[in-house]
C-alpha cells in the first residue's frame, strides 16, 4: 500500500511541475503579447501621421545618433511591413496562448484526479 502511495505522490509531483512550467511559459507569452500590442499601436500611430504628410514633405529616420533623409513612400511602406509582421506575430502568440491554456486545463484535470486518488489512498492507509 505504501508503494502505491509513493508512486501516486511522484506522479502528482511530476504533474504539478509540468503545470508550474506551463504557467511560467504562459506568463512569458502574455508579456510578449503585451510588447507586441504596444509596438503595433505605436506603428499604427506612425502610419497615421505619415498619411497626413504631403509628398513634398521631408521625412527623416533616426539611425543611432544620425537623422537620415528618407522618401515618404519608403517610410510608409516600411511601417506597413512592420505592422504586417507584428500582426502575424500577435496571431502566432495568441495561438500559442490558446494551446497553452488547453494544456493547462488538462494538467488541472490530471492534478485533480491524482489528488483524489492520493487522498483516497491515504484514507485507506489510515484505516
TrEMBL record:
<dbReference type="InterPro" id="IPR002777">
    <property type="entry name" value="PFD_beta-like"/>
</dbReference>
<protein>
    <recommendedName>
        <fullName>Probable prefoldin subunit 6</fullName>
    </recommendedName>
</protein>
<dbReference type="GO" id="GO:0016272">
    <property type="term" value="C:prefoldin complex"/>
</dbReference>
<dbReference type="InterPro" id="IPR009053">
    <property type="entry name" value="Prefoldin"/>
</dbReference>
<dbReference type="Pfam" id="PF01920">
    <property type="entry name" value="Prefoldin_2"/>
</dbReference>
<dbReference type="GO" id="GO:0051082">
    <property type="term" value="F:unfolded protein binding"/>
</dbReference>
<comment type="subunit">
    <text>Heterohexamer of two PFD-alpha type and four PFD-beta type subunits.</text>
</comment>
<comment type="similarity">
    <text>Belongs to the prefoldin subunit beta family.</text>
</comment>
<keyword id="KW-0175">Coiled coil</keyword>
<feature type="coiled-coil region">
    <location>
        <begin position="83"/>
        <end position="124"/>
    </location>
</feature>
<dbReference type="GO" id="GO:0051131">
    <property type="term" value="P:chaperone-mediated protein complex assembly"/>
</dbReference>
<dbReference type="GO" id="GO:0006457">
    <property type="term" value="P:protein folding"/>
</dbReference>
<keyword id="KW-0143">Chaperone</keyword>
<dbReference type="GO" id="GO:0051087">
    <property type="term" value="F:protein-folding chaperone binding"/>
</dbReference>
<dbReference type="GO" id="GO:0005737">
    <property type="term" value="C:cytoplasm"/>
</dbReference>
Amino acid at each position: 500500500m505504501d508503494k502505491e502511495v509513493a508512486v501516486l505522490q511522484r506522479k502528482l509531483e511530476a504533474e504539478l511541475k509540468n503545470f508550474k512550467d506551463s504557467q511560467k511559459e504562459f506568463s512569458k507569452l502574455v508579456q510578449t503579447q503585451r510588447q507586441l500590442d504596444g509596438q503595433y499601436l505605436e506603428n499604427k500611430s506612425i502610419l497615421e501621421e505619415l498619411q497626413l504628410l504631403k509628398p513634398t514633405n521631408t521625412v527623416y529616420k533616426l539611425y543611432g545618433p544620425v537623422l537620415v533623409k528618407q522618401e515618404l513612400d519608403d517610410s510608409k511602406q516600411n511601417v506597413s511591413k512592420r505592422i504586417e509582421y507584428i500582426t502575424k506575430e500577435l496571431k502566432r502568440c495568441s495561438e500559442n496562448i490558446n494551446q497553452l491554456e488547453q494544456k493547462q486545463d488538462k494538467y488541472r484535470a490530471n492534478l485533480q484526479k491524482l489528488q483524489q486518488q492520493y487522498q483516497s489512498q491515504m484514507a485507506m492507509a489510515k484505516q
